[in-house]
């Protein structure tokens, strides 16, 4: 049985990615911070849910062990991420907020990837690692600097592991979503509705979790088998510079 690990599996991009991976024949072992998430959409499917926080070494170990018991770990999709609990000017950003965001978004991603990468090498069957970064990795938002820094870190994590694992037949890539309709962006919906209506996003709409999940699948199923260390931008054209 081929197994995919998906963090942040209970909602948004993680949920959409897990559902698509299941439809492609993967057993999915997923982690979320909720002890009792709504997993109705996974009813009857081969999802194993492990509650936990990827900033915790013990929780990462529990997730990995649960996946290893299911079969060959062939894919890791690092989705789990948090925004600052309170947006504040970078001149007022606290160490507590920085540590909270970096612990999950960057440290957790780094060390879960390290664990899974070592196991994939031992399996000797290759594999795919996909990191969900953000347009914030290359776009300044001075009211949430810790988030931008954390996602820029994910970009370098991607390149480092892509370099190290290339000889092992393991591809490592990142997806940089733009404005996606998830729980994280719900609190600022009115702001982004206005910006999108004013032309911020050339395609003229919010992105959906499914938009991103389709790219996840392509990176996991070999469609882009000659691609590693890449940053795939999925922001509706927001990154385009115009004159």
Note the topology.
Elements (H helix, E strand, L loop, with lengths): L1 E6 L4 H12 L3 E6 L14 E5 L5 H12 L3 E7 L16 H29 L3 E6 L12 H21 L4 E8 L11 H9 L11 H12 L10 E4 L9
Describe this structure in words.
The structure is a single chain. The protein has 243 residues and is of the alpha/beta class. The chain has one domain (2-180, 208-233): NAD(P)-binding Rossmann-like Domain (Rossmann fold). It contains 6 helices and 7 strands, in the order βαββαβαβαβααβ. It has helices at residues 12-23, 57-68, 95-123, 145-165, 189-197, 209-220, and strands at 2-7, 27-32, 47-51, 72-78, 127-132, 170-177, 231-234. Strands 3-2-1-4-5-6-7 form a 7-stranded parallel beta sheet, with helices on both faces. α3 (95-123) links the parallel β4 (72-78) and β5. It is globular and about 50 Å long.
């Amino acid at each position: 049985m081929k197994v995919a690990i998906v963090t942040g599996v209970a909602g948004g991009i993680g949920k959409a990615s897990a559902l698509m991976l299941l439809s492609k024949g993967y057993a999915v072992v997923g982690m979320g911070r909720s002890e009792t998430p709504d997993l109705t959409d996974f009813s009857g499917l081969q999802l194993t849910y492990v509650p936990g926080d990827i900033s915790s070494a013990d929780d990462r170990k529990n997730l990995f062990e649960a996946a290893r018991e299911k079969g060959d770990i062939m894919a890791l999709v690092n989705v789990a991420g948090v925004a600052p609990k309170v947006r504040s000017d970078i001149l007022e950003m606290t160490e507590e907020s920085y540590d909270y965001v970096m612990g999950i978004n960057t440290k957790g991603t780094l060390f879960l990837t390290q664990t899974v990468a070592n196991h994939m090498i031992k399996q000797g069957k290759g594999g795919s690692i996909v990191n969900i970064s953000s347009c914030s990795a290359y776009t300044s938002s001075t009211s949430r600097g810790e988030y931008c820094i954390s996602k820029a870190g994910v970009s370098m994590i991607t390149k480092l592991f892509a370099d190290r694992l290339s000889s092992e037949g393991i591809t490592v890539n990142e997806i940089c979503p733009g404005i996606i309709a998830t729980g994280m962006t719900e609190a600022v919906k009115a702001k982004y509705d206005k910006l999108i209506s004013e032309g911020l996003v050339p395609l003229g709409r919010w992105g959906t979790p499914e938009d991103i999940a389709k790219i996840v699948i392509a990176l996991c199923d070999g469609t882009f088998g000659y691609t590693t260390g890449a940053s795939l931008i999925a922001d509706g054209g927001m990154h385009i510079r115009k004159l």
